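In response to the reviewer comment on reproducibility (Comment 2.3), we provide here a single inverse folding case reported in full, input and output, so that an independent group could reproduce the run without further information from us. The structure tokens appear first.
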């Protein structure tokens, strides 16, 4: 299927590895030019080189902190009129809410709620004027089924979800859609870090925890970044203009609800 987005420009945040990289690679495969960003320059450049080797698209790699005003300004200078925006940032630490300070909450809100909102604000009007735009917020399955040790993430990402619900129905008239992708257990550094924390606190072997969690998913495995990227690319396509304000679970069937 031709997704109809070849030649367009996308900003993909936190895209040096994991789900962000999966999205960047899938968009590049569709001919989308990229501005990719992450904190670690060496990892980011490796990702850019890999994509250049498999796709002829233009790529700009901007190393920096997208959660800072300076980091956002540098990315927007490199791509002031994106057609596609993939909001993504690493999740805040796990823990017990009794231990979190106001500073912990402010960092979580800045990274996982306010930064996406600032990037939407900076780009959505131009998308509406050009009559095409696709904004994807990578959040978490915890938006639908909160996880107790991920309270910082639960709160911040739920706030972003509520905000988007209020504007996604206003922008679609101009062919600008805003949707959330809610990953469940994907084989990423974040998941491995969570397992390491469980292993450390419980004293159980890491590999036992990994196998147990994979077997506990209805799919019997974890998702891959390639699968996630493919879903993202479709939502960014010109075939997906009638989908907006939705929060789509990619979790192998783990969520037990009907809605």
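Designed residues, in position order:
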């Amino acid at each position: 299927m031709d997704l109809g987005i070849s030649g367009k420009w996308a900003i993909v945040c936190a895209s040096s590895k994991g789900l962000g990289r999966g999205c960047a690679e899938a968009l590049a495969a569709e001919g989308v030019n990229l501005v990719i960003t992450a904190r670690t320059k060496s990892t980011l450049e490796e990702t850019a080189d890999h994509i250049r080797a498999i796709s002829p698209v233009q790529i700009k790699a901007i190393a920096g902190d997208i959660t800072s005003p300076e980091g956002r300004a540098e990315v927007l200078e490199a791509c002031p009129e994106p057609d596609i925006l993939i909001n993504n940032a690493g999740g805040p630490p796990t823990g017990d809410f009794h231990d979190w300070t106001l500073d912990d909450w402010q960092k979580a809100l800045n990274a996982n709620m306010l930064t996406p909102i600032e990037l939407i604000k900076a780009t959505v009007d131009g998308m509406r004027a050009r009559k095409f735009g696709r904004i994807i917020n990578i959040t978490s399955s915890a938006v639908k089924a909160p996880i107790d040790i991920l309270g910082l993430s639960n709160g911040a990402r739920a706030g972003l979800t509520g905000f988007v619900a209020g504007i996604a129905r206003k922008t679609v008239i101009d062919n600008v859609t805003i949707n959330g992708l809610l990953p469940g257990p994907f084989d990423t550094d974040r998941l491995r870090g969570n397992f390491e924390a469980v292993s450390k606190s419980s004293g159980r072997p890491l590999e036992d925890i990994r196998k147990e969690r994979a077997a506990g998913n209805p799919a019997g495995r974890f998702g891959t970044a390639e699968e996630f990227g493919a879903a993202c690319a479709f939502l960014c396509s010109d075939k997906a203009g009638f989908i907006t304000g939705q929060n789509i679970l990619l979790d192998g069937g783990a969520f037990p609800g009907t809605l």
